[in-house]
Amino acid sequence: xxxxxxxxxxxxxxxxxxxxxxxxxxxxxxxxxxxxxxxxxxxxxxxxxxxxxxxxxxxxxxxxxxxxxxxxxxxxxxxxxxxxxxxxxxxxxxxxxxxxxxxxxxxxxxxxxxxxxxxxxxxxxxxxxxxxxxxxxxxxxxxxxxxxxxxxxxx
Length: 155
Hints:
This protein is of the alpha+beta class. The protein contains 4 helices and 7 strands. Strands 1-2-3-4-5-7-6 form a 7-stranded mixed β-sheet, with helices on both faces. The longest helix is centred in the middle third of the chain and has 16 residues, at 95-110.
């Protein structure tokens, strides 16, 4: 599993990735994510590859980057998993957990973060069970005006 830069060569393929229709209300499109990251210095995004096959997209948020715009309060020792998506054609193959392994390796390699935070919107077909099965735990905090449940993974 590899996290590779999104560039002109793979941009349109990354934009074409999509989750299954019942999941679309739980994650923003990759186009929206890339646009948000370009206007927020704290955003960092990559294409997710299994060998040489593009299978997904990931975006992190680092609140310690000068000019970073946090939508919810974050400690400087927390990295935020802003977006994670695996294309509908590649789901249910363990690639989401492998993508999280790659994210975890990247974040721990930076040497200054103690937790990886993210959130989920409750609802049928949402990512709650996926994240909890990986080892994230609910923190008791809510994000996005109380609509999303914050979860954390100790690094």
